[in-house]
Amino acid sequence: MNAMTFEELIEHKRDGLKHTVEQMDRIVLGYSAGEMPEYQMSAWLMAAYLNGLDAEETVWLTDAMVRSGEVLDLSSIPGIKVDKHSTGGVADTTTLVLAPLVAACGVPVAKMSGRGLGHTGGTLDKLESIPGMHISLTPEQFLATVRDVGVAVMAQSADIDPADKKMYALRDVTATVPSIPLIVGSIISKKIAGGADAIVLDVKVGSGAFMKTREQASELASELTRVGHALGRDVVCIMSDMDQPLGMAVGNSLEVVEAIETLRGDGPAALTELCYVFGSKMLVLGRVAADEAAARRLLTAAITSGAALETMRAWIAAQGGDPGVVDDTSLLPLARCRRAVLCTSAGFVTGFDTEGVGRAAMLMGAGRATKDDTIDPGAGLVLDVRVGDSVALGDRLAMIYAASEDLLDSAEERLLASVHIGSHRVKPPALFHAL
Ligand code: URA
Ligand code: CA
């Protein structure tokens, strides 16, 4: 068959036709190699967004994305390498807790993480709030750190899944992010290129997630699992709630503090439980526990013995950071201006616009509005309330932290609009949803 031009490939998908594996390779590899220009890829992405990709095409897309760059070779690290990824949430400090926690239990953690996206936080930004911490490691430093202390987290290098990097940036500005086949390709290709043997995915659903309904999130979860399996990886998906922030802290250094408290056994209940559930899956997949009950006992022991905190100290030190932050969190940056946000009516917390809570933190500098914005590592907020709590007039809803009073003003307004107060008590949303 004669190769189609890029224009013909766009036309093919525009007309709702199915690509062959060769055509999919041509699109993905052609784009990542710079042969297909951005305007043509934008058109193809929109055609794929509108007409969809079928089961085979989604597998071919993902596989081509993996082959667009190098696959990290983790074989010099003994054991089964289990990676965990969240589709993105608010006050989701899980990775900062899980990385040292499961490492302390004997599962090696060799993780590439991303920066915050939109209103959601990113592990790299949180880690960088620790004084001295480096996240740009060479592959050699990365592997050596995992071998020495059991855990390393680094930024995705340019050689790994370049197709995802380029496609993601384009999707972000062409209104083609919330497409299930495109999200599946992005997540699974990145995890495979990162060298994972097994993958645990936290598929977030609710007002703070990219998938706002349970039906969408459930379809995303089943596609992530199917494509992972088709490409020979063990994938476990869990659907978890984003109708309220997971933890209480939103903002980079504030989330590091919350992670340390959780590793000490003093974390918020929902965040702690989520870490137990994901940690258990990781220990079972990593074959250091026979079942989830045994895994939970190992996780509990690592927290109560202080082993998890010790691993956190060793990990921070190995990546150039000040391990003293684990014992004295006042060594972390905290924005100079602070304010208590008070409840303007009495009643019950009936719900959150969780994305709005994330955006309130972003307004203070905890996240980026554009790719080139700089982050204020000490900005953010700590909530005092959860759905179902009763509140009186003047009760504190949150503390907010920013570099100026003006920033506090806009964040306070956004936050107040994002915490819904009503006259009847409602049941808090379940932390997990059936797939
Ligand atoms: N997270 C990713 O890594 N990719 C997507 O496409 C969406 C969320
Ligand atoms: Ca995240």
Word description of this protein:
The protein is α/β, with parallel strands linked by helices and 435 residues long. It has three domains: 6-52, Transferase, Pyrimidine Nucleoside Phosphorylase, Chain A, domain 3 (Up-down Bundle); 82-326, Pyrimidine Nucleoside Phosphorylase, Chain A, domain 2 (3-Layer(aba) Sandwich); 335-422, Aldehyde Oxidoreductase, domain 3 (Alpha-Beta Complex). The chain contains 16 helices and 13 strands. The chain has helices at residues 6-14, 21-32, 38-51, 55-66, 94-104, 123-128, 139-149, 162-172, 180-193, 214-230, 252-263, 269-285, 292-304, 307-318, 354-363, 405-418, and strands spanning 82-86, 109-113, 151-155, 198-205, 234-241, 249-250, 337-342, 347-352, 380-383, 390-391, 396-402, 419-422, 432-433. The strands form four sheets. A four-stranded mixed sheet has the order 1-4-5-13, sandwiched between helices. It has a four-stranded antiparallel sheet with strand order 6-9-11-7, sandwiched between helices. A three-stranded antiparallel sheet has the order 10-8-12. Helix 2 crosses helix 8 (162-172). The longest helix has 17 residues, at 214-230. It is globular, with a radius of gyration of 22 Å. The protein binds uracil and calcium ion.
